[in-house]
Amino acid sequence: MSDPKTKSDEEWRKQLTPEQFRVLRQAGTERAFTGEYDKHYEEGEYFCAGCGTKLFGSDAKYNSGCGWPAFTKPAEGDAVAEHRDTSHGMVRTEVTCSNCNGHLGHVFPDGPPEAGGLRYCINSAALDFEGES
51 an active-site residue? Predict the structure, then answer.
């Protein structure tokens, strides 16, 4: 298997569903309130659907009402990277997987104040979930 940071689009298309490819590799966004993990509150961990890197824990997930899975913080370490995003006439902070550079979503400063004030708004298509046994 090739390095996820240097995989070709053809390699990614073979590995991902069309929706995962659109989100992770083309910085797409799934429609609000349609994602598998929006209202998902099982205990466990969320991983990058592209490369399997641990991104978020269920202890950081909350119902923000925004229509996408929302987290107050990423997993330990440098699992996610943040980049300035000026697409669509807005200035936002894009969140990507640090291992494969896959687009995950965006982070906003309107999360719960008691949890640090951040809302990581993440596309379900960018995630895989593994529940606690």
Answer: no
Q: Of 48, 51, 100, 121, which is the active-site residue? A: 121
Rounded Cα gap, residues 26 and 48, in angstroms: 15
Rg of the chain taking only CA atoms, in angstroms: 14
The class (CATH top level) of 9-131 is: mainly beta
Domain ranges (residues) in the chain: 9-131
Low-confidence ranges of the chain (pLDDT < 50): none
| pTM of the entire predicted model | 0.93
Q: 36 is written with which tokens?
A: 């598998």
Residue 71's Cβ-count burial label (10 Å; 0-12, 13-18, 19+) is buried
